[in-house]
Amino acid sequence: MKSRFSFRAGVFVTLNSGGSLRGCIGFVAPRKRLYGALVEAAVAAATRDPRFLPVQSGQLGRIKFEVTVLSEPQKMAVSNPNQYLSGIRIGMDGLLIRRDSSSGLLLPQVPAEYGWSPQEFLEHACEKAGLPRYSWRDESTEVLRFGGTVFREG
């Protein structure tokens, strides 16, 4: 089984409890083999997501795990920022926003779950990076997209 997961890939593990987010941590870059990255991200999502207290053993029965295996992020090449709007495929593309030392990532399933338009997706990704909503229009902001294969627990 280990050999089926021995390729390098970015991966995020999302924990949900009762339909609400309970933790989400992962790695954009394919810095580790999938099996190692998956274990590390799962433990971190349960114990080190700064938005939540660590998951306790008594809570595990209520936690649903979701794994997203990422493709390599690619910079979107546009001559005009408005071209991002037609280049983003909701439900298929994730976004990584970078400017200076700030970055923010949203997985491909997020805008579909919330019913966002491409513009709303860009705005929320900018906010996740700690940037103003319309920073995606600034030429100093990098917009990268990536795909993700999602595996959900029953």
Automatic annotation (TrEMBL):
Domain AMMECR1 intervals: 1-154
Pfam families tied to this protein: AMMECR1
Gene3D superfamilies associated with the record: Hypothetical protein ph0010, domain 1, Hypothetical protein ph0010, domain 2
Name the UniProt record assigns to this protein: Protein MTH_857
Protein species of origin: Geodia barretti (Barrett's horny sponge)
